[in-house]
Description:
The protein has 177 residues and is mainly beta. It has one domain. Helices cover 12% and strands 34% of the residues. It has two helices and 14 strands. It has helices spanning 69-77, 153-164; strands at residues 3-5, 18-19, 23-28, 36-42, 45-48, 57-59, 65-68, 80-81, 83-91, 103-108, 125-126, 132-136, 143-147, 174-176. The strands form four sheets. The protein has a six-stranded mixed β-sheet with strand order 2-5-9-10-7-6. Strands 1-14-8 form a three-stranded antiparallel β-sheet. It has a three-stranded antiparallel β-sheet with strand order 11-12-13, with helices on one face. β6 (57-59) and β7 form a beta hairpin. The longest helix has 12 residues, at 153-164. The protein is globular and about 50 Å long. The chain starts with a strand and ends with a strand.
Amino acid sequence: xxxxxxxxxxxxxxxxxxxxxxxxxxxxxxxxxxxxxxxxxxxxxxxxxxxxxxxxxxxxxxxxxxxxxxxxxxxxxxxxxxxxxxxxxxxxxxxxxxxxxxxxxxxxxxxxxxxxxxxxxxxxxxxxxxxxxxxxxxxxxxxxxxxxxxxxxxxxxxxxxxxxxxxxxxxxxxxxx
Length: 177
């Protein structure tokens, strides 16, 4: 069996969706109060997006991606794996009076593996209590951080690695051929 991987990137010209009213579980390390991050989101995602921004892949400011029913059906047809979906509350701006599209949050569960040594990623800071880690990037000024208290370490590493390469974390979806 051959595995194929795709990298999804947001088109520059596509209007982005904006998250509305999201609340997150706070994570504060008991050993180092400076290690703070947002844990799991509490509840389903809600967004406001202009209809021109709704495509098979609709991007949210901050890097998350939504998927249309049509694209989801294609993923199912071609047995694409490495993701889960959750419902999304979609609304359009107040001046748009058509029913909003049905979209789903695309949550990557696959793992693309560790970064190659040549990528320049190394663990600069690690906390064994809260599993906070910081990975400086080979690119100037880009610091990569992950926090794995609330989620699986591999998922967070995958997200950090994807951010390093300038790719939204949804790029790890895998298909079986």
